[in-house]
Structure formats: structure tokens, C-alpha cells
């Protein structure tokens, strides 16, 4: 069960409690599930009971007590424990990691993408900031390199969520396309009906000498309201460089696949008893991160998420292959599948940021 599926399961539990007359609330549109915080337990936790307490007219812990029976016993849920003022801590069944890995490997780098519309971008469609159905999201930015790069990344993320996007800028230098791979659909002043929608804090120096990948990372990794650092630290091949860690984790996962082939076995999703919960949580959270990055026009969320995935994956990767005279087993195939899933998420996220994910580093 992925976090998205678990969120739907939690909402279904609320709906069943409402139908049974145990809660008198409006079923919310979404339920947030995340790794448990301090004092929590299990694989995921949700604060849905705290969210519903006031409209239900009951204490949060009582709401959680009402919801627990509707979650316990659901296929894929092994146990539900109440902690704190009313957090529901959910432990998933042993097959959950295998299902998540299988889902990621099946989708490939499009894991977390929504179904894209069939129609091409339509510049003359009516403005629609939230891009429902086949309407167009119009992004406009000033004549500023960072603004254009951020708008380009936002457009990529929106398109992966099924939106049609048109990017315009007040000015555009042709060298930006050659150097950083950005594109705009039109150049000129902002339409009267559309304010400037992409205006991050400008870079303090020219990032072009860093090259495409490092320059894009330097401009996209900080939040739009933060001033980016433009320096050689983005080129350093060491652990202190987040971009290096992300690309190195991806390259290591690809190397494991090649090494496993030399040993005569391939990945096969299955139970991984010692799988890092931080890694499983980060992989499962990827679709939510992409959706949030699109909704908030914030590609920096993807960049930070990729760092979290890499940091969770790197300690696990050395455990994948057999050691010494050990023969490949089902456990090794399952570990390899998890490593490949991590590499797939890293490659997909880097692609959305317009950054290369090399197999060799």
C-alpha cells in the first residue's frame, strides 16, 4: 500500500464512520499520511482525528478511537496504534514494500505522474491558474535567468501532473536555451489579465560557468524566496554537495544492476525485512511531492525530496549484493529491486528538474 492508497483508506474509514452515525462531519478531500514523528510508531501516521475533532464536537483522541476499528483489518494494514492527543499510527503488512517497489518499477521514471491530456498546449485557451481539465496554466516571468529556469522547471512539473502550460517572459537570451535547456513560448510584456507569476529572488552571480546541471540545481534547490549560492561547491564530487549525493546514489543503483547481471541474477520485488523505513517512506511519498510541487509552483520541493531519497538510500546500497561466497537469493533480488526503485525515483525527479542522471559518475 502506497501513501496515496493509505490516504484513500483513511478517508474511506472516515466515510464508514460517518455512514454508521459515529461521526457527524463532512468527509475531507484528503488525509495527510507521513512517517511517524517523535513518540510515534509504525510505518505511517495521520492527524486526521485532530483535523476532525472540532467539526465532530469530540476530543481528538475519541475521534481516533472511533476511526481505529475501521482501519484495523483492512487489507494491507497490520495494526493501528493511538499516540499523543490522537495520532493514528499505522503499521502496514509485510507485502507493502514489495507492492511499492513493483509499482515504481512498473511506472519507471513516470512514477508519480498523472495522466497527461491528449491535446497539445493551446496558447489561446482561457486562463486557469489551477489548470482543470484541458485549460492552460500561463506562467510569466521577468527577464531574469533564475526566473526563466524556475518557470521552465515549474512547467515540466505541471505537465507531469497533466496540465497544459504556456510560459512567457519579458525577455529571453538565446544562450539560455543552449546553456541550460530552458524554453519559453513567447517573449513580451505580461498580459493585462495576468500578473507576473514567477519571480524568485535573482541569483547574485552568473551561474552559466557552472554548466547546465550544476547551474540548474543551484537555481532550483533553494526556495524561490531564498537567494541561491552560485559557486564551485555545486561542482564538488563530495558528500557535502547535495547534487553529488543525489546523482551518486542513482549511479550506484545502476552499478548494482550491472554487477548483479554479472553474478547471474536480476531484481525481483519481494519482502525486505531490513529495508530502511525512511527509504520506503520517501519513495512512497514521491507522488505527493510531485503534486505539491505542481500545486505550489515549487520545484525546490522536488530537489529537497531527492536529497532525502538519496540520503536514505546510500547506507542501504552496500547491503544489496551477495558477499564473499554467498549465493544470490530471493532476498538479494528483493534488495536489488528496492535499490532500482530508489534509482528510478532519483532519475525521474532529476529529469523533471532538467538535470541529467548519469549511469556512471
Characterization of this structure:
The chain has 361 residues and is of the alpha/beta class. The protein is built from twelve helices and seven strands. The strands form two sheets. Strands 1-2-4-3 form a four-stranded antiparallel β-sheet. A three-stranded parallel β-sheet has the order 5-6-7, covered by helices on one side. Helix 5 (145-160) crosses helix 10 (286-295) and helix 8 (242-262) packs antiparallel against helix 12 (330-352). The longest helix is centred in the C-terminal third of the chain and has 23 residues, at 330-352. The protein is flat, with a radius of gyration of 23 Å.
Topology:
Elements: H1 3-19, E1 33-34, E2 44-46, H2 48-56, H3 60-71, E3 77-83, E4 87-92, H4 96-107, E5 136-141, H5 145-160, E6 164-169, H6 174-180, E7 186-187, H7 212-220, H8 242-262, H9 277-284, H10 286-295, H11 300-313, H12 330-352
Parallel strand pairs: 5-6, 6-7
Antiparallel strand pairs: 1-2, 2-4, 3-4
Strand order of the largest sheet: 1-2-4-3
**Hey, roughly how much beta strand do the residues contain?**
5-15%
Give a short account of the largest sheet: 4 strands, antiparallel
Q: Into which percent range does the helicity of residues fall?
A: 40-55%
- Supply the number of helical segments: 12
Query: Could you report the average pLDDT, rounded to the nearest whole number?
Result: 89
Order of helix and strand elements from N to C terminus: HEEHHEEHEHEHEHHHHHH
Radius of gyration: 23 Å
Shape: flat
How many β-strand stretches? 7
Residue ranges: pLDDT <50 for 5 or more in a row?
116-134
The SS-based structural class is alpha/beta
Amino acid at each position: 500500500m502506497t501513501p496515496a492508497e493509505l490516504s484513500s483508506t483513511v478517508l474511506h474509514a472516515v466515510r464508514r464512520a460517518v455512514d454508521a452515525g459515529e461521526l457527524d462531519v463532512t468527509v475531507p478531500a484528503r488525509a495527510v499520511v507521513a512517517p511517524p514523528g517523535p513518540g510515534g510508531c509504525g510505518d505511517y501516521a495521520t492527524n486526521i482525528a485532530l483535523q476532525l475533532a472540532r467539526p465532530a464536537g469530540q476530543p481528538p483522541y475519541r475521534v481516533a478511537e472511533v476511526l481505529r476499528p475501521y482501519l484495523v483489518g483492512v487489507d494491507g494494514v497490520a495494526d493501528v496504534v493511538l499516540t499523543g492527543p490522537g495520532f493514528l499510527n499505522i503499521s502496514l503488512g509485510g507485502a507493502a514494500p514489495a507492492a511499492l517497489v513493483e509499482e515504481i518499477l512498473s511506472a519507471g521514471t513516470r512514477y508519480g505522474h498523472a495522466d497527461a491530456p491528449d491535446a497539445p498546449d493551446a496558447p489561446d485557451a482561457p486562463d486557469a491558474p489551477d489548470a482543470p481539465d484541458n485549460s492552460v496554466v500561463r506562467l510569466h516571468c521577468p527577464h531574469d535567468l533564475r526566473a526563466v529556469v524556475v518557470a521552465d522547471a515549474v512547467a515540466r512539473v505541471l505537465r507531469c501532473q497533466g496540465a497544459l502550460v504556456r510560459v512567457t517572459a519579458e525577455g529571453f537570451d538565446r544562450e539560455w536555451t543552449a546553456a541550460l535547456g530552458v524554453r519559453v513560448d513567447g517573449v513580451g510584456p505580461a498580459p493585462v489579465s495576468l500578473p507576473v507569476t514567477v519571480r524568485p529572488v535573482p541569483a547574485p552571480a552568473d551561474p552559466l560557468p557552472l554548466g547546465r546541471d550544476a547551474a540548474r540545481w543551484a537555481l532550483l534547490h533553494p526556495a524561490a524566496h531564498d537567494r541561491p549560492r552560485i559557486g564551485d561547491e555545486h561542482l564538488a564530487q563530495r558528500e557535502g554537495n547535495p547534487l553529488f549525493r543525489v546523482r551518486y546514489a542513482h549511479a550506484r543503483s545502476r552499478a548494482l544492476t550491472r554487477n548483479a547481471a554479472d553474478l547471474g541474477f536480476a531484481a525481483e520485488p519481494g519482502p525486505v525485512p531490513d529495508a530502511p523505513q525512511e527509504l520506503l517512506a520517501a519513495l512512497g511519498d514521491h507522488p505527493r511531492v510531485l503534486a505539491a510541487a505542481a500545486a505550489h509552483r515549487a520545484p525546490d520541493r522536488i530537489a529537497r525530496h531527492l536529497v532525502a531519497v538519496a540520503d536514505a538510500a546510500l547506507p542501504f546500497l552496500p547491503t544489496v549484493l551477495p558477499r564473499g561466497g554467498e549465493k544470490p537469493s530471493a532476498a538479494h533480488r528483493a534488495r536489488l529491486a528496492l535499490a532500482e526503485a530508489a534509482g528510478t525515483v532519483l532519475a525521474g525527479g532529476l529529469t523533471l528538474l532538467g538535470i541529467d542522471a548519469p549511469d556512471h559518475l
